[in-house]
Amino acid sequence: MHVQRDLTNVYRAVLRSISEIWTSLQQNRDVDGLLQQIADATCQALGFRYSALYLEDEHHNFYVRATSSSVPAEHTAYLRQHPMPAYVASLLTQPALRCRNSYFIPGEADVWQDESVAAHFVIVQEGEPVITTLSYEELGVGEDISQWRPNDLLLVPLRKGDGSIIGFLTPDSPLDGLRPSPETVDVLEVFASQATGVIEWAHLYEEAQSSSQERAALIEIGRALSAPEALRDLSTVYQVLYAQLCRVMPVDGFFVTRCDFARDEMYADYIIDEDISYPSPEPQSPISPWIGYMLTEHLTYCFLTAQEHEDFVLQHTDRTKVILFGSKRRSESLIFVPVHYGDEAIGMLSVQSYQPHVYTQRHVQMIKEIAVQAGIAMMNARRYSELGQAMRQAQESEQLKNQFLMTASHELRTPLTAIQGYLELLSTHGAYLDEERKQRFIDNARRACDELVLLLGNVMDTSRIDQEWVSVKRDVVAISPAVAQILEILDPTITREQRHIELDLADDLSVWADDLRLRQVLMNLVGNALKYTPPATQIAIGAQRLSCNETLRRIEEAQPGGVNMLTGERCVLIWVRDWGPGISQKEQEKLFTKFSRLSTEATQAQRGAGWGLYLCRKLVEAMNGSIWVESQGIPGEGSTFLIALPETEGQ
């Protein structure tokens, strides 16, 4: 039977505690501190060793907001990570367990045999670890049922004036070792009633304070988003977003993701994790299916645990695990909000915490409001960037045009000057010149005309190629005669510079190509070899049959990921090698681009418009071939330019 407690002293202690709590509410409006004070008063005034205070959230689950100071920290952490779900609360508040207007769940109750119920609580014992359940056999048959047992639970509802429950007090381990009598429960309920008033006032203050902080945060965010600097530096805006979000909610990680659906790529524009900024990783391609689904459907998600998030991701993707950023730790609470500009999905905002169950719908709504403004800022920044890029391209085009006009006039003037000089010699001194000298002057003028025609052809072909139109008439073309014609045109330069041309050409080699275009390409390659290597330096021109597979292997080794237009089983490889300064790997990357000239001293000393190799690439590709360079960039070892074209056989 119960031992009667001295309730008079208990009532006095309760009234004194309630008075102190109300005084604290007026003097110190620290909500968490007030809740802690209520949990401690439950023990001190009512004679219990431990106490926990649960409050209901918007999903009707009950979270531990405070525990008495006597509860070990690891126990409190466990309880915070295991809130009481609504279905568990309904099981523990069955009419059969009612005691006055509270609920007493004895350790021998059947409900404790359900692990899914017991796992949400701990049994606090001095010097013992966290225990979530005890078997019935451990209670001891025949023990005095009036004695409080370690796994007994008392739920004292925190009821508002309309009777609705906003939470529970769970006093545990009474100092007198007895299970609660109805009189004791009456006192607990009086205390709980007064504590409810304090909590409601605290809630109102907390909500007013949160609203004030949210307004201030939104004002700061709006100011940052509308600042002119936001157009040029979005990372500064993201830092403001992060700082303001930390004012109004728990934030351990903050991520801004930008999505390009046209390229099916996702970019992490901004990553900060526990106040540490991380560099953006490489674009992720393709876009994660679950992110694409969320963005296209305009869906917002709030995950209260890491398991909820992982289950969702695995449901919408074939990945076996979630991709982690920042410190690579797994977040426990996560909010994902899509960023849109009109109907266009452009990215996503995410706030994350390493504690579970910390985010509410109020937090979600706050992020959604920010996402609307962020969408405008991101789109404005994108357009500003595109405008700046367009202006830079216009400036570069203007520079290229001026450079083109200057170099083209210089290029064309050289053969024109030669033609003019030989004609003047013939006109002035023709009567005194022998036939052999006249013929030499005429041949030299003709070769200068050929060079002039080639230069003009390059200009015209470059223009046609830029308009995606170039004339190619393919037929059987013998390699050896084509090379011979090129060497005949370049003979004056070869003779003057005392060059030795080494030939390795079989007479039976032929390709399926355009004769004029092939000679145009060879003229450019051999002309470059003469132009960019010292006089008397040897030049080699050769050709051989190769399988297309072997050719593709060489192309991939020289330029990984390069363009390949080859078809068929066999091809002919034509090469032009020099023993000049060579070309570095970095310079090779821009070698075949329009108006590109290398930065080496030997290159800059020579005239040139920078369109020759660009034109060569376009013409070779139009003939279903490939062109590339092989060079280690070592002076004296030079460079080898190679052309692969389909062999005549099989065409």
Query: What is the strand arrangement across the widest sheet?
Result: 3-2-7-6-5-4
| Helix-residue proportion | 40-55%
Q: pLDDT average, as an integer?
A: 80
Rg, rounded, reads 42 Å
Largest sheet: 6 strands, antiparallel
Can you tell me the residue ranges where pLDDT is under 50 for at least 5 consecutive residues? Answer: 127-142, 602-609
Shape: elongated
Oligomer: single chain
Number of helix segments? Answer: 19
Class by alpha and beta content = alpha+beta
Query: What is the terminal separation in angstroms?
Result: 108 Å
Strand content: 15-25%
Strand tally is: 21
Describe this structure in words.
With 651 residues, the protein is α+β, with helices and mostly antiparallel strands. The chain is built from 19 helices and 21 strands. It has helices spanning 7-27, 31-46, 73-81, 86-92, 115-118, 182-226, 229-232, 234-248, 289-296, 306-316, 361-429, 435-466, 479-489, 491-496, 515-531, 548-558, 585-588, 601-604, 612-622, and strands spanning 48-50, 52-56, 62-67, 98-99, 102-105, 153-159, 165-169, 172-174, 253-260, 265-273, 276-278, 301-303, 333-341, 344-353, 475-478, 501-504, 510-513, 539-547, 570-578, 626-630, 640-646. Strands 3-2-7-6-5-4 form a 6-stranded antiparallel sheet. A 6-stranded antiparallel sheet has the order 11-10-9-14-13-12, with helices on both faces. A 5-stranded mixed sheet has the order 16-18-19-21-20. Mean pLDDT is 80; it is low at 127-142 and 602-609.
